[in-house]
Design a protein that fits this description.
Keywords: Membrane, Transmembrane, Transmembrane helix
Mean pLDDT: 85
Structural class: mainly alpha
Protein name: DoxX family membrane protein
Helix content: 55-70%
Organism: Mariniphaga sediminis
Number of domains: 1
Shape: elongated
Number of helices: 8
Order of helices and strands: EEHHHHHHHH
Radius of gyration: 20 Å
Strand content: under 5%
Length: 176
């Protein structure tokens, strides 16, 4: 199928479904980041100190250093906002998906839903191995494999410019 200057083989329903998923995940990241920014005194300290699982010592040590904790808070707040905004509007969505997967993996590893770790007040619901973070990681992997922002996001303008630049370079090489 051809849509404008970008060629793709997705049906209209596939484009809609992929875009809808990207926008929903983007909204989730954006909202979570904004809530943290606009909540007075928000910090990840309690979350880090309560972590469980194989990386608990690492997360707890991060909470012990004021400098590292401030970095964690800053990257958490603004990372969520920027990833969310990027996914929501479909701009630079490929790196945002990768960074989102890394961030969600850290959340997953801080509170892995593994048997024998007990319950934790920082975790909502009852999970066994699969939780919402792992599902959202899988969704971002799916969006990485089947991208839609080059069709329905601002990435389509970057893709068009890159294709034109590549075409111009090839034309120049052929003329010499």
């Amino acid at each position: 199928m051809k849509r404008g200057k970008i060629e793709h083989s997705y049906s209209d329903w596939q484009v809609f479904a992929l875009t809808f998923l990207r926008v929903l995940i983007g909204w989730h990241f954006l909202y979570e980041g904004l809530v943290k920014i606009y909540t007075p005194g928000w910090t990840a300290k309690g979350y880090l100190l309560g972590s469980a699982g194989p990386f608990a010592l690492l997360f707890k040590s991060m909470a012990q250093s004021e400098f590292i904790l401030n970095l964690v808070d800053l990257f958490n707040e603004w990372g969520l906002v920027l990833i969310g905004l990027s996914l929501f509007i479909g701009l630079f969505s490929k790196p945002s998906k990768i960074i989102g997967i890394v961030l969600l993996s850290l959340y997953y590893l801080a509170y892995p839903p593994f048997p024998g770790l007990g319950e934790n007040i920082n975790v909502e619901g009852n999970y066994w191995i699969v939780n919402k973070n792992l599902i959202e990681i899988a969704a971002l992997i799916l969006l990485s494999v089947f991208p839609s922002s080059f069709v329905t996001g601002f990435d389509r303008f970057l893709t068009s410019a890159k294709k034109k630049e590549k075409y111009d370079k090839q034309k120049e090489i052929l003329q010499t």
